[in-house]
Write a structure and sequence with these properties.
Length: 185
């Protein structure tokens, strides 16, 4: 089979492309040695990045622990200034007036009654806030439990009773046939 002129030209073009590719592509040994030398470098970068990430993680955990400890101390100081108000099951508040031990109590009886009345007002206000929060939580829970989808009416069809009920054994065959589609020949 002899090659026609067009086929010879195509073969010549492919030969030129192959020679160009061979000239451009590097030798296997060069690529292999380059790959071997690079295989050690990423390991050291990985170790360095792992150490950096670990140090950052420990710093974040340490700062979080420090912040929580400071926050707990501030909460303890705030709770020492406000009396404890337990609420019994019938809703009556029993107050315990425990002045903090680190505060100096004045010997002036008038000053004590003023602080006591302010403290009682604060306790009453807190109790009212707790009751209001409880009522709103109950109201929200009841609203959620009685919610209905606005699109349920769109999903209803006239045949829902047929699809959701089972035929009874005492129904006649003619009544059961009324549910089946009629065959028209």
């Amino acid at each position: 089979m002899e090659l026609v002129g067009e086929e010879k030209r195509i073969q010549a073009l492919f030969r030129e492309l192959r020679l160009e590719d061979e000239r451009i592509t590097p030798r296997f040994a060069v690529v292999w040695h380059r790959a071997q030398s690079r295989s050690f470098a990423p390991r050291s970068r990985f170790k360095l990045s792992f150490v950096a990430a670990t140090v950052l993680l420990f710093c974040a955990l340490f700062s979080l622990a420090w912040f929580l400890r400071q926050w707990q101390r501030s909460q303890e100081l705030n709770s020492a200034a406000v009396p404890v108000v337990p609420i019994t099951s019938i809703g009556i508040a029993q107050t315990r007036l425990n002045p903090p031990s680190n505060l100096a109590v004045s010997s002036d009886p008038k000053g004590r009654s003023d602080s006591k009345s302010r403290l009682m007002k604060l306790v009453a206000r807190r109790h009212a806030e707790l009751l209001a929060a409880r009522r709103s939580a109950i109201r929200n829970a009841s609203a959620i439990s009685s919610w209905q989808s606005p699109t349920t009416a769109l999903l209803r069809s006239p045949g829902d009773a047929v699809l959701t009920s089972l035929p009874q054994l005492n129904e006649s065959v003619n009544e059961l046939k009324s549910f089946l589609p009629s065959r028209s020949n």
